Backbone:
């Protein structure tokens, strides 16, 4: 499926991955957009509003408490621990949870160089980042993650995470050329490793593609569909590949993924179609052929059933969103149908950056809020949806 490979500067072609996690991260446009640090000393407590982006924090030095709204017990964080808060929940970070809480957002708004200090700053050093998701497609990832993921530094799986954390510390403390890009890439790798850790260590993954990916009998079928989404897969084929009967496979797949196998495939195709329209790399006819539809009309009808609008109308809404955010006007490409990303079809994080001087995303990574979309989000189907 659809990771994008860039040849030259702007020659973008589709490549088949067959890796559901990579595919979903690509579809959700998951990327680290901000890195900041916190230094703490003495007795303190910081209250943060719901981050509205996936929040990632690593404790480099010292200890502190994490209390997430809605969770029963606070977590004691030690040196080397990492936590992720995927849900839009407020949380408290503190040396003492009984201490008077101060506004963490206000503290970081006043911070210089993305470094905030509370107290003498000698006891705790933590690095925080936000992983942004596409406002329309990000739910495919955020909706299947738990309210908090805690990676204990003493766990066997944490060795790779510790190495990445060491590299991230070097980047943010030495200020070498390219530190901005390198630190964000390392934080993104750290995020992927944390999801892997969650998959490997959790027996309570909620229903959805992530739970299906964690099932050794169902995961191979997911990889087949992600590897060839345009193929007219039959239930019997998929069941045979994983060594199960049709009935057993269908029941187990739906129990894990929340949808039937072929419904999952249809949802996957529609997500790829949305990505193709957004990227502007294919015409509607080419998308229809790429995704295995016999005709443009068959593809358009399927797209409309899932999203509530025809592909061309969906594209028009995307264009209007870009225009209202002040991006360069989109010109038709050589096919006369889709926007060419070389002339201003701006990705969501770049659109958001236009508001950094005055909007809510001017805050630091420990307390950053998602920029408000310029127009209401495009209506899309959940991938995979819950039947």
Residues:
């Amino acid at each position: 499926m659809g990771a994008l490979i860039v040849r030259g500067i702007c020659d973008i072609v589709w490549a088949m991955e067959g890796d559901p996690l990579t595919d979903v991260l690509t579809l959700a446009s998951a990327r680290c957009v901000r890195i900041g640090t916190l230094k703490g000393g003495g007795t303190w407590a910081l209250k943060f509003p719901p981050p509205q982006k996936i929040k990632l924090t690593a404790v480099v030095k010292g200890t502190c408490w994490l209390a997430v709204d809605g969770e029963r017990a606070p977590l004691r964080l030690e040196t080397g621990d990492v936590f992720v808060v995927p849900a839009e929940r407020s949380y408290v970070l503190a040396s003492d949870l009984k201490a008077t809480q101060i506004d963490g957002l206000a503290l970081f708004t006043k911070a210089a160089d993305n470094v905030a200090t509370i107290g003498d700053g000698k006891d705790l050093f933590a690095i925080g980042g936000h992983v942004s998701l596409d406002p329309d497609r990000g739910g495919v990832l955020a909706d299947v993650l738990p309210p908090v993921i805690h990676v204990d530094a003493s766990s066997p799986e944490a060795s790779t995470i510790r190495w990445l954390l060491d590299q991230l510390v070097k980047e943010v403390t030495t200020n070498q050329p390219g530190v901005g890009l390198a630190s964000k890439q390392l934080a993104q790798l750290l995020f992927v490793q944390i999801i892997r850790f969650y998959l490997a260590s959790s027996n309570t993954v909620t229903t959805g593609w992530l739970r299906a990916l964690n099932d050794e009998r169902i995961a191979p079928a997911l990889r087949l569909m992600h590897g060839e989404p345009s193929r007219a897969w039959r239930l019997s084929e998929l069941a045979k590949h994983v060594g199960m009967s049709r009935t057993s496979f269908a029941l187990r797949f739906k129990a894990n993924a929340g949808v039937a196998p072929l419904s999952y495939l249809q949802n996957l195709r529609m997500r790829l179609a949305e990505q193709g329209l957004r990227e502007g790399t294919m015409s509607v006819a080419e998308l229809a052929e790429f995704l295995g539809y016999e005709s443009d009309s068959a593809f358009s009808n399927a797209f409309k059933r899932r999203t509530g609008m025809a592909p061309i109308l969906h594209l028009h809404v995307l264009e209007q969103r870009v225009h209202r955010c002040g991006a360069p006007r989109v010109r038709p490409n050589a096919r006369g149908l889709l926007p060419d990303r070389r002339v201003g079809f701006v990705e969501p994080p770049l659109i958001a950056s236009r508001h950094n001087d005055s909007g809510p995303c001017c805050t630091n990574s420990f307390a950053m809020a998602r920029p408000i979309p310029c127009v209401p989000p495009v209506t899309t189907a959940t991938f995979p949806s819950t039947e």
Q: What stands out?
A: The first strand starts at residue 3 and ends at 7.
